[in-house]
Amino acid sequence: MSASVTRTTMMDVSRKAGVSLKTVSRVLNDEPNVREEVRLRVREAAEALNYHPNVLAQALVRRRSHLIGLVYENPSPSYVVELQMGVLERLRGERYRLVVIPVSSVAEHEQEIVGLLRSAALDGVVLAPPASDNPRILKDLTAAGIRFARIAPTRDVDLGPSNLIDDVSAAREVAQHLLDLGHRDIAVIQGDPTHASTAMRMKGYELAFAAAGARLSPDRIEQGLFTRDSGYAAAQRILSRSQRPTAILAQNDDMAVGALMAARERAVRVPDELSIAGFDDSEVSRITWPTITTVRQPVFEMAVSAADMVLAQLEHGDVRPRQDHPHTLILRESTGPVSPDRAKETA
Amino acid sequence: MSASVTRTTMMDVSRKAGVSLKTVSRVLNDEPNVREEVRLRVREAAEALNYHPNVLAQALVRRRSHLIGLVYENPSPSYVVELQMGVLERLRGERYRLVVIPVSSVAEHEQEIVGLLRSAALDGVVLAPPASDNPRILKDLTAAGIRFARIAPTRDVDLGPSNLIDDVSAAREVAQHLLDLGHRDIAVIQGDPTHASTAMRMKGYELAFAAAGARLSPDRIEQGLFTRDSGYAAAQRILSRSQRPTAILAQNDDMAVGALMAARERAVRVPDELSIAGFDDSEVSRITWPTITTVRQPVFEMAVSAADMVLAQLEHGDVRPRQDHPHTLILRESTGPVSPDRAKETA
DNA sequence: CTGAAAGCGCTAACAA
DNA sequence: TTGTTAGCGCTTTCAG
Q1: Which nucleotides on strand D sit less than 7 A from a protein beta carbon?
Q2: Disulfide check for B196: which of A7, A117, B154, B305 has CB 3.0–4.6 Å away?
Q3: Tens digit of pLDDT for each residue in A271-300?
Q4: Who contacts A245 (Cβ-Cβ below 8 Å, separation ≥6)?
């Protein structure tokens, strides 16, 4: 039953080829100083014995597991997918493999996380928010000798190679867009408060409002968690008020989708009666109806870049300390001018 | 710079605690036969030195990497997400980690795949379609001594622990639903032909048609690839014909979404002028408008079960040979009765 | 150009 | 209850 009771080892190959262990090692690793004839003989022996190196043994002595971790906290599936695809894209063709490390709550488990990573024998990790923003984790990682790169951190940008997006400006731009359309009574669905970008985006909204001489009313702000359900629930609260806002700013697309569904359920027409804007430009924002106005955050590209930063450290020790990534306002169908009658009210 | 030039090892701990290596090993692995006092002393020493076992060394000697792979081919992101979440769910709290192994084309690379898995030092793998249906891969896996479990295979069900769904009946039921609504001119968007389920679902459709005394016209069958784009393109071809069908059967939800977008673009009202049904009950089918009628395939549960089967083999060697999973027809908004005038035509 | 010997850090027999 | 001695399968000095 049990297939390989004793795997064939380098010893077997060396015996069959009539050479020493070291010579086999040299051939297998394409090192110089082996006669061509011997090289061939060893290759044939390995082939004949169906030899495959034991990567664990290699890993032990080389101190390289060739395992890269991706640490993220649950929130939005579409975000996670892009993240993964980005890392996988960079790893394609390399010897490194991707180990996914979902963490339920970075905030609650910050002290255990690096232990977890260490016990996975990772050579390096790509940190998504909010882990990428957690100084404790960065410190522990450094102490443990695990290379890392950060995605979308909001602070201590010099504490490790970082991939940055300007959350504040991005948020300012979407808010600006709604204000330009004449909206003044705008509700906000915030993201998970343990993610620093939540506060950043809020700040961006505020800047836009201030510039327009408008004000963001505190009782128009609802708490969400970056999940569609939380967006749906928040929108329900918003829409059940006697006075309905004319627009909703959701801090990510999944919550915007939730808001859209809540609106549909109440037969509130989007964008005629209610504009909804999201954040991220994730896949879902393109398949809803109406499609969702959002601001593109190049998650995929950031992930590619982060993976690249990790590999760079592992392979030649050098690090690009930071990489800025552009955001783009994407106008779609879910936002429109405020309706004339509502415009009058606040005029 | 480089954090841990020389990591602290068991040796260091044994010296500090004044005991032998083996005693340290015993304490650290909670083995019996150590005096309580000694146990404590060793624990303290380990703590003081901030000792962490080298998992690679453990893996080498124990012949266990504690790495589980998930092998899948690209098609639909939502499918992959559910798959991963299922495996991760089962692995939560266990020592095992998930390594994702996306494969561009199983059909083209079938001979290289197991080499890839071996070089990742995986203890076991969960195989999603179409790898789960590939006899060559199953054979190589067995030869390599890598445990595995299959998700939704369609043949050779006894070639390894399998999680089954009745693709034929499931497909028959959705088709039946459209036929019951009076549709007779129905187009089909097929999935990737290298996935066996594509043929199975086709068969299910045919059975339903036969039972209704109807016929599936060959020129109503369009090839897709399980991706949204391919569904969109296929629907474009379908809808550009002079005579439009009254319904579309898409072999998964992503393609159904693509079809929905094509219909929207041409201002074809769904379901009034065109019914669209999908397959999978993936996340996206719930967020489009109209929401998509589909047949639920419990991907998450199958993944949990498959991961469980792998762990079972690894931990106690026993295997549940197969597990059947139910499908459920999910009626939503994208399907409706055929319009009276079109019904007359074919009457 | 080639090989012998000494580890990597840990676990497993087998004594003591 | 504890320690000694071999390995796991590979790479790496350092001689030859």
Answers
A1: 1-13
A2: B154
A3: 999 999 999 999 999 999 999 999 999 999
A4: A185, A186, A187, A220, A238, A274
